[in-house]
Amino acid sequence: MAKNVAQSPLERNGLPSLDQRLAMAKRCSHEGVMAGVKAAMVAGIATAVPTIASAKMLPWARSNLNPTAQALIISTVAGAAYFIVADKTVLASARKNSFKSNMET
């Protein structure tokens, strides 16, 4: 049985084993989540300040932007920032790991 494992294409080519690839995938997704959360917090604060300020000061915004609309604006921007940054981070990390595994062979 051990002879079959040593002759597997993954071991023969020097590519990372399945456990190493799973660990890299978990690390990549965790990095993406953390970067997305940071971006969502920054975007939420950056959107909340002008949205709430305009709802207090501008007559049009005061009459048309109720608290639900304000929350919807802020959460939409924060959600979009999360998904965009998380996706870009995961793709960049996967690309980096792809080049790293190709250079090792």
Automatic annotation (TrEMBL):
Concerning InterPro entries, the annotation shows: Enod93 (IPR005050)
User: Which keywords fit this entry according to its UniProt record?
Assistant: Membrane, Transmembrane, Transmembrane helix
Would you say which domain of life the source belongs to?
A: Eukaryota
Spans through the membrane: 33-55, 67-86
Keyword Membrane annotated? yes
* Pfam families, A to Z: ENOD93
Q: Does the keyword Membrane apply?
A: yes
Task: Note the PANTHER family from the entry.
Answer: EARLY NODULIN-93
* Protein's name in the database: Early nodulin-93-like
